[in-house]
């Protein structure tokens, strides 16, 4: 095997650590960065360096926002329907739903799902804050459980249904249009649209 310069090898190794990136793809990306315009590479490095310092969790929905804005653009948008709250597992699910403008309400990101096997309990998620929002924001009339079709989310959904502090809030789920064991993150626009329209 042709020896690779140590710095390039370290770059390939760190890129290949990313999910869904194999060694060959990592090598191509590393070589691209090596040959890229120096200004681009410096900007790329700066953004990576600033990433974890400048991005924080939204204090309201637990999505992502810039550090100088404690609440995200969606929570701050007065045009959003305050009566409906969409519950998602993670921020990528929120982005997937919002990018196609299917849902015009607000969100709450739980940060995972209940999974005793993996050691994740209700207290490890943002469920208590969700309940506080439902209790304090009296305008909320519907909760949409936009959950991925798997056992962990079934457990999480049942926990929310059983412990919700206001029984006058309507709880709906996305229709069964999502593929079994599929993911909201990878669902296409038509599938998401039908899932929301057919929620029960």
The first-to-last residue Cα distance is 58 Å
In CATH, what is the class of the largest domain? Alpha Beta
Which segments are poorly predicted (pLDDT under 50) over 5 or more consecutive residues? none
CATH topology title of the largest domain: Dna Topoisomerase Vi A Subunit, Chain: A, domain 2
Number of strands: 6
Q: Helix-strand pattern, N to C?
A: HHHEEHEHEHEHEH
CATH architecture call of the largest domain? 3-Layer(aba) Sandwich
Strand portion:
5-15%
Overall structural domain count: 3
Shape: elongated
Mean pLDDT rating: 90
Structural class: alpha/beta
Number of helices: 8
| Strand arrangement in the largest pleated sheet | 4-3-5-6
| Helical content band | 40-55%
Radius of gyration from CA coordinates: 20 Å
Largest sheet: 4 strands, parallel
Could you write a compact summary of the structure shown?
The chain has 200 residues and is α/β, with parallel strands linked by helices. The chain has three domains: 1-35, Orthogonal Bundle (Helicase, Ruva Protein, domain 3), CATH 1.10.8; 43-76, no CATH class; 80-197, Dna Topoisomerase Vi A Subunit, Chain: A, domain 2.
């Amino acid at each position: 095997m042709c020896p690779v310069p140590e710095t390039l090898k370290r770059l390939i190794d760190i890129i290949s650590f990313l999910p869904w990136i194999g060694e060959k793809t990592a090598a191509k990306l590393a070589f691209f960065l090596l040959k890229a315009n120096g200004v681009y590479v410096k900007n790329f490095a700066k953004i990576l360096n600033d990433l974890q310092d400048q991005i924080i969790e939204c204090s309201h929905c637990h999505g992502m926002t810039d550090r100088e804005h404690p609440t995200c653009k969606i929570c701050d948008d007065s045009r959003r329907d305050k009566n409906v709250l969409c519950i998602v597992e993670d921020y990528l699910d929120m982005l997937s739903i919002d990018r196609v403008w299917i849902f015009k309400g607000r969100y709450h990101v739980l940060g995972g799902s209940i999974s005793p096997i993996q050691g994740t309990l209700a207290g490890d998620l943002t469920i208590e804050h969700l309940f506080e929002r439902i209790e304090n924001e009296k305008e909320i009339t519907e909760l949409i459980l936009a959950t991925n079709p798997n056992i962990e989310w079934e457990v999480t959904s049942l926990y929310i249904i059983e412990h919700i502090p206001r029984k006058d809030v309507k709880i709906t789920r996305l229709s069964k249009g999502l593929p079994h064991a599929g993911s909201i993150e990878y669902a296409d626009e038509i599938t998401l649209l039908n899932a929301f329209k057919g929620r029960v």
